[in-house]
Amino acid sequence: MIRRGFTTVRDAGGADWGLAQAIQQGHAVGPRLRYCGQAISQTGGHGDMREPGDVVHDVCHCAAGLGRIADGVAAVRTACRDEIRKGATHIKIMASGGVSSTTDRLDSTQFSMEELRASVEEAEAANIYVMAHAYTARAINRALEAGIRSIETRKLSRSVELRLV
Length: 165
Hints:
By secondary structure, the chain is of the alpha/beta class.
């Protein structure tokens, strides 16, 4: 990536903190990696990769590595704080449905406004920001209203539908 001119890349989910550290410490060659950790999803949301019949036995409620489940304001705060503790330079929250998850509708909105705002409050307390996975204009507008700074995906919206951009 360095040879192609990329000096910094921003993770939108799935990167490894160890890789970011290895690059920073000179053990691996690569661009600076801005790491977000696991994306935060509600139960049955875009980051919840369990099948409908799966039973939760793990108290961690992790979601196939790329995401973690947090339901309610307190759980969202805890998830954000934990990702920050693990080295996240920004937080990713799943604010709408997606194509790779089997238990949510693509056009759904996810998380309450209070939960979205809680993610922003926690990020701002650590002097970082929140990015949101959001497909539809409704999901994007809700994320922006909550104070989320970066919108990712945006495949099912038109500029004329967006109120707050």
